[in-house]
Amino acid sequence: MEGPTAIVSALHEELQAVLHLMPDEHQQSVGGRTFWRGHLHGCDVVAVLSGIGKVAAATTATVLIERFHVQRIVFTGVAGGLGEGVKVGDVVVARQFLQHDMDASPIFPRHEVPGYGRATFDADAALTARLVRAAGQVLSELPAQLPDAVRSAFGLHTPACHQGLLISGDRFVSTTAESEALRRELPQALAVEMEGAAFAQVCHDYRVPLAVVRTISDRADDAAHVDFARFLREVASRYSAAIIDELLMQP
Question: What is the pTM of this model?
Fold first, then answer.
């Protein structure tokens, strides 16, 4: 690949797992954020935490493009599952993004982003296809390597890779009432998180390819907080590092 690849994680534990793969990373601070420059499998990489929420995410995406001149962005993180059959321990690779809390009605239709004439933004098809292959390879191998106690605790039997609509908003969806309301309103949504749609809009503006993978940590319901820290540490961070490693090993 020519030009830097940005590797973005939503949470510190996931980013640390990726940084451990980079033998020569060094830090640079811009806009109150710490960026790590280095190499992974011969690729020039810029790694960073996105920050929580859409504003932080948009700022991070803009700095990556304007200051570091990245040629593509790959985002890895966790999300709450919404779609039927999307289970804890599965992964969702985004094909489209939507802000579920965007509402400028009645001037504009609900969810439409003013000035764009659209509610959804697309992931880059080619980069996403590569990410799907990487995620599928990892899911075929990594879950069996996890301790039995971890697989039992989270029901990790045959994790699947889903592709489709990922929705974002500036709130952590953690009640059954909220998740059911989102399913009624946006039945095509596979998962909900807080940053992806902001990255997608910025990448659309700059014409920078984006691909996003999210590990399902919960079902965005009343039990969303249960064992989240353990899942992040023992499952999601390992998924993130392995998927990025596999992605950058591809020709």
Answer: 0.94
